[in-house]
Automatic annotation (TrEMBL):
It comes from Christiangramia sediminicola. This is Uncharacterized protein.
């Protein structure tokens, strides 16, 4: 009996030791953030999260930055500089944000290194946007985020135009001056529509030279939806229509390594998204819904086309001062949803990254459908990194995004979106040269 007990005890101890050795031999997942040849961590916070880091562009000379950024301790972007290698390496985008993720300012640069346009924000809303070019400077002024005035002054100070927006009266008044003399002043509906003109180089809204515009409305009822998918880029250009689609955009091959900053100058939604997610450490989760309700287009009458062509030939400079270079030929109406799930402070190891990505997808899908919630253990693992799901739409209330953590929060913003009427998705322009 004693021998049996001794043998049983020895067997139990042997099994226990063997089990411990097996557990000790199982490699533990490494969630640390380390530098490599492409990604350099320059400083970290006490919890190991990134404070400052940079990506290197290996297609160019050694140690040439692709992006440089700094996070707050809570994971939000503090500053970011983004570079382009086309047509030559240059800084093209720079942003600064507060520790509660409100924009402070942003700047965009030309390939020659000159400031192209900048936006200053107040309480998270735009307060002033200035656009520079060889032709002159235009200043957009805002109150509580609403555009109230656009003022343009030519480079030689010989001419100017001022557009004043009155939301209460639902009007916009355009005044154009040359050599100190007012050459025209016109009042139009507050919202730009068919026939509205613009100096596209500086984004200057001008007068409408067409009379008795008869739009040709076409009902579309086109809808497109895709469930959350992994994207290599944080650029929403495929999902978000440029608000102003100028004629020359049809002939641009965008450098896919950079944001389409030419659209950021006139598309508040696009600008808001790329300034919140200027850099990425991993793939991003994207869900998108587009609905085109219809479009309204028109063709100027033949006599007006002829008259404007003659006026343009007689004095091209005066013509551009009054009408700009393009006019709205078509207006699209509808709605857009753009949801993005972004990861920051990602571990360097491939296994850890894959594990985090799988949990991020599960979390985002749970927010959308309310099914398969993360376990307490899975939450603990996902909390080792920074993960945010944000809901954007064409509604003004969603322009800067709504952070979503639960399915009920998703249902609330979705209901707001569904109950809202369709709005202007895009103004499509035609050039006066083709009249």
């Amino acid at each position: 009996m004693n021998n049996f007990f001794s043998r049983s005890l020895l067997l139990a101890v042997t099994v226990l030791l063997s089990s411990c050795q097996k557990e000790e031999s199982i490699p533990q997942t490494d969630y640390s953030i380390e530098s490599d040849d492409y990604f350099q961590v320059e400083s970290t916070y006490p919890n190991g999260w990134i404070k400052e880091a940079r990506y290197t562009d290996y297609s160019l000379e050694e140690d040439t930055p692709y992006s440089e950024f700094e996070y707050y301790e809570n994971g939000f972007i503090k500053t970011a500089k983004v570079y382009s290698s086309y047509p030559q390496h240059h800084l093209y985008m720079e942003v600064s944000r507060s520790d509660d993720n409100k924009p402070l300012w942003s700047k965009y640069y030309t390939p020659e290194g000159e400031l192209w346009f900048k936006t200053d924000y107040k309480n998270g809303l735009p307060s002033e946007k200035i656009v520079y070019s060889e032709k002159g400077t235009s200043v957009y002024s805002y109150e509580a985020g609403n555009l109230v005035m656009v003022e343009f002054n030519s480079a030689d100070d010989s001419s100017s135009s001022i557009t004043v927006f009155d939301k209460n009266a639902e009007t916009r008044t355009v005044t154009v001056k040359k050599d100190g003399e007012t050459i025209l002043e016109e009042t139009y509906p507050y919202t730009e529509g068919l026939g509205s003109t613009m100096l596209t180089d500086n984004q200057v809204p001008l007068i409408n030279p067409f009379s008795n515009i008869e739009g040709n409305y076409r009902k579309l009822n086109e809808a497109f939806f895709h469930s959350p998918i992994w994207e290599n880029s944080t650029d929403p250009i495929k999902e978000i229509h440029p608000f102003r689609y100028f004629y020359d955009y049809f002939h641009i091959n965008f450098d896919r390594t950079t944001f389409a900053s030419k659209l950021a100058v006139n598309s508040d939604l696009y600008q808001s998204i790329i300034e919140q997610y200027p850099v990425k450490e991993s793939e991003v989760l994207v869900m998108n819904y587009k609905y085109k309700e219809g479009s309204n287009g028109f063709l100027p009458r033949s006599e007006e086309r002829k008259s404007l062509s003659e006026e343009m030939a007689q004095d091209p400079e005066l013509f551009e001062l009054k009408y700009g270079d393009e006019y709205v030929e078509k207006v699209y109406f509808g709605k857009i949803i753009y949801m993005i799930g972004v990861l920051r402070n990602m571990p360097t190891g491939a296994n850890a990254e894959k594990e985090i990505q799988n949990l991020a997808r599960k979390k985002m899908e749970n927010i959308i459908d309310g099914k398969k919630p993360l376990t307490a253990e899975e939450h603990e693992i996902l909390n080792k990194v920074w993960f945010e799901v944000k809901f954007f739409s064409t509604l003004k209330a969603h322009r800067n995004g709504i952070v979503l953590k639960t399915h009920n929060e998703y249902k609330e913003v979705l209901q707001e979106f569904e109950e809202a009427e369709s709005s202007v998705l895009q103004l499509e322009y035609a050039t006066f040269e083709h009249l």
